[in-house]
């Protein structure tokens, strides 16, 4: 089976692990990943990324000159994509830029014109209802009408596209898996000593952006109700709320329990997660964000949850978006924005080590079954086989 995957996501080598695993599942599987030759991620990464061509066995990454260097929907590729399609002749084409992507329309059209007869698939994260306007409505209809299989990072995304007229096969799974060897349970005595953590400290962790929609102020409010218990708060990340977090901690007289660490390289995040006794993802749905065709945001998956679960760290998440589906019964769920319920969940784990250990084991088991790169690769291959057969 020859599989062509197209996405800016894979300019980062770490993000390619699932697709590399896919190429190893059988000798006859070949995977080529097309990425933009130049890409500006934006945000804190004020740079242009220029990925290099590379090959490992039946897996290749091929950068191709692109139009638009920082807009996912407008990304398209020059004539080199035609040469690749003619040479490789894929059985599956998967474009991971969403339902309204010009790149997906481009690959669908070339698939037709060149007579390749590959199955067209795409990946989406979008999980809030939206209404399209001209000409976006025609673009999405063209894409959906020519789609053989949809991969959605969450159930809401799949349901929304059903409402938009999609009638084909659906697979719900995240875009990226977790490396179960990198993210595993390991003691961190040197790191604990660096931050002066004591054995009796219960470390409550958060990893992510310091922004309102990640619910970090709700977490601070919950902790002000638990000052009689021996906890410390470890925040790993950065963002616009840093000063407000610090001020609220001072006001609540918990500033001596607060440890804030700027974002660290992804391959060291597991070390910090392993300092924690619980990881909290208190995301909150918001309608402040607007695009040309949609408004709002809610948690699309919560990748840090499966990283913590893989490390056998129990997790607590809000009921925003996909979080309850990711955690299932392997952690605790509270209503988003409800600091009292979050406080109660934290108290349960602090006061009941047996419950914490039980959830930690269930979390690791759930990740190993559903969310490692190997598990996702097997699920993706099975989906492709269904499309072809």
How would you portray this structure in words?
- The protein is an alpha/beta fold.
- It folds into two domains: 2-177 and 372-388, Glycogen Phosphorylase B (Rossmann fold); 189-370, Rossmann fold (3-Layer(aba) Sandwich), CATH 3.40.50.2000.
- 35% of the residues lie in helices and 21% in strands.
- It has helices at residues 17-23, 80-88, 102-113, 136-145, 155-163, 189-194, 216-223, 242-251, 269-273, 303-310, 323-327, 339-351, 353-370, 373-388, and strands spanning 2-6, 30-36, 54-56, 59-64, 66-67, 76-77, 92-95, 119-124, 149-152, 169-172, 202-209, 231-238, 258-261, 278-281, 286-290, 295-297, 315-318, 332-334.
- The strands form four sheets. Strands 3-4-2-1-7-8-9-10 form an eight-stranded mixed sheet, sandwiched between helices.
- Helix 1 crosses helix 14 and helix 10 crosses helix 13 (353-370).
- The longest helix is centred in the last third of the chain and has 18 residues, at 353-370.
- It is elongated.
- The termini are close together.
- The relative contact order is 0.12.
- The mean pLDDT is 94.
Any chance you could write out the topology, listing elements then pairs?
Elements (H helix, E strand, L loop, with lengths): L1 E5 L10 H7 L6 E7 L17 E3 L2 E6 L1 E2 L8 E2 L2 H9 L3 E4 L6 H12 L5 E6 L11 H10 L3 E4 L2 H9 L5 E4 L16 H6 L7 E8 L6 H8 L7 E8 L3 H10 L6 E4 L7 H5 L4 E4 L4 E5 L4 E3 L5 H8 L4 E4 L4 H5 L4 E3 L4 H13 L1 H18 L2 H16 L1
Parallel strand pairs: 1-2, 1-7, 2-4, 7-8, 8-9, 9-10, 11-12, 11-14, 12-13, 14-17, 17-18
Antiparallel strand pairs: 3-4, 5-6, 15-16
Helix pairs in contact: 1-14, 7-12, 10-13, 12-13
């Amino acid at each position: 089976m020859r599989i062509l995957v197209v996405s800016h996501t894979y300019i980062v080598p770490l993000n390619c692990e699932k697709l590399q695993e896919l190429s190893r599942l059988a000798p006859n599987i070949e995977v080529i990943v097309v990425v933009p030759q130049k890409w500006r991620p934006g945000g804190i990464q004020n740079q242009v990324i220029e990925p290099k061509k590379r090959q490992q066995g039946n897996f290749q990454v091929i950068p191709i000159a692109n139009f638009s260097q920082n807009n996912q929907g407008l990304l398209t590729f020059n004539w080199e994509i035609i040469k690749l399609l003619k040479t490789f002749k894929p059985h599956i084409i998967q474009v991971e830029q969403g339902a309204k992507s010009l790149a997906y329309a481009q690959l669908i059209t070339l698939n037709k014109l060149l007579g390749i007869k590959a199955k067209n698939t795409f990946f989406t994260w979008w999980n809030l209802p939206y209404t399209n306007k001209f000409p976006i409505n025609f673009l999405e209809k063209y894409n959906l009408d020519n789609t053989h299989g949809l991969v959605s990072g969450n159930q809401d995304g799949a349901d929304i596209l059903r409402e938009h007229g999609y009638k084909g096969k659906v697979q719900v799974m995240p875009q990226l898996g977790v490396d179960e060897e990198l993210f595993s349970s390991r003691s961190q005595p040197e790191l604990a000593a660096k931050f002066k953590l004591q054995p009796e400290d219960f470390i409550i962790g958060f990893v992510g952006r310091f922004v309102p929609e990640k619910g970090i102020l709700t977490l601070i409010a919950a902790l002000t109700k638990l000052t009689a218990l021996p906890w410390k708060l470890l925040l790993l990340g950065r963002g616009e709320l840093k000063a407000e977090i610090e001020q609220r901690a001072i006001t609540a007289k918990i500033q001596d329990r607060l440890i804030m660490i700027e974002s660290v390289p992804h391959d060291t995040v597991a070390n910090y997660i392993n300092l924690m006794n619980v990881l909290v993802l208190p995301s909150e749905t918001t309608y402040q964000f607007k695009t040309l065709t949609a408004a709002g945001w809610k948690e699309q998956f919560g990748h840090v949850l499966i990283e913590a679960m893989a490390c056998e760290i129990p997790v607590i998440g809000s009921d925003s978006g996909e979080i309850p589906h990711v955690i299932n019964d392997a952690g605790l769920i509270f209503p988003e924005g409800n600091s009292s319920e979050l406080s109660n969940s934290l108290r349960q784990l602090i006061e009941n080590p047996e419950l914490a250990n039980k959830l930690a084991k269930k979390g690791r088991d759930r990740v190993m079954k559903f969310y490692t790169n190997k598990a996702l690769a097997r699920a993706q291959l099975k989906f492709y086989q269904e499309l072809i057969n």
